[in-house]
Amino acid sequence: MLKRIVAFAILAAGLALPQTGAAIADNQFPFPYNKTKAFPPPLKHPTEASTKVEGRLSSQLFKPEGGGPFPVVILHHTCAGVSEHIRQWAKEAVDRGFVAYVIDSFGPRNVYNACGKATDVLLSDGMVDVLDGARHLAKLPFVDPKRIVHIGFSWGGGISLFGNSTWVRNEPKFAAYKDVSLAAAVAVYPSCYLPKTGNRIPEVSFIQPDVKVPTLSLMAENDHEVPNPDCVKRFEAAKKQGSAYEWLFMKGATHGWDAFEKNGLKTKQPWMSSEGTYHYSKETTEESIKLAFDFISKNLP
């Protein structure tokens, strides 16, 4: 049985954050970020969509038959970049009447893996990719501009969280995207928090107490990459401050439960005390897809 708790979580494996930046007054939610680093050149977003989820996934747009306008899900990859597991989510999206955009923050910038590494593409850059992509999609004739949703996996899930924080969106660095809004967000097997790890990674909480966009986190009960107890404390604190989070534990699941291509993969990120293993679960994958789209459908305008 799934355990439901109101809250949200994301995973930021591959985080490369400097010690400079802003943090809200409540020290439970530290969020340092680089205020001065320039954003990379914007992605070239697609304008044409295929009705068949076949072939290349990276930077591709898929849609149902017909002229729409349709709601959209922006599918955002893990720290390992766009992988084959996203195809099932894209197929399900199209079958359920959604446009699916498989956004790629890494490949076009020659970054292919950011897991536990410092890279030139930070999560704040990924956030801008989502907002820029949403603005682009809103102009397409087959898209309903008021029903654009972000689904992030692991690394991408971090963006699902802080990208909808009011104070983050009001920072001068993101001022160009104040006109862009999302209808909802879903984070899949995420973590909300990273402890300070040596001199490389500062303490950071991606859950912020001022998120008002409906946001669902689907968490792995046995996630070796996520400090669940630390997340719970912040989820509950954010809930008390009015954040619009929902949190579900997927019983028996590990990190990457939908990634059949990574079944058996062993990982140990810098903040982890021991190595862990990914285990693919067809049942959990199907259940998580249903939960995600039920949540989205419930919260679309």
Describe the structure.
There is one protein chain. With 301 residues, this protein is of the alpha/beta class. The chain has one domain: 3-Layer(aba) Sandwich (Rossmann fold), CATH 3.40.50.1820. Helices cover 23% and strands 18% of the residues. The protein contains 6 helices and 12 strands. α2 crosses α3 (155-162). The longest helix is centred in the last third of the chain and has 18 residues, at 282-299. It is globular, with a radius of gyration of 17 Å. 49% of the residues are buried.
User: Which class do the helix and strand fractions yield?
Assistant: alpha/beta
Write out the strand line-up for the largest beta sheet, numbering strands in chain order.
Answer: 1-10-9-6-5-3-4-2
Can you identify the CATH class?
A: Alpha Beta
Span between termini: 30 Å
| Spatial extent as radius of gyration | 17 Å
Mean pLDDT: 87
What characterizes the major β-sheet? 8 strands, mixed
Uncertain segments: 1-25
Number of spatially distinct domains: 1
Strand content: 15-25%
The percent of residues in helical segments reads 10-25%
Number of helices: 6
CATH architecture: 3-Layer(aba) Sandwich
Features:
301 residues, alpha/beta, Rossmann fold, two-stranded antiparallel sheet, 12 strands, disordered N terminus
Short account of what is shown:
With 301 residues, the protein is of the alpha/beta class. Helix content is 23%, strand content 18%.
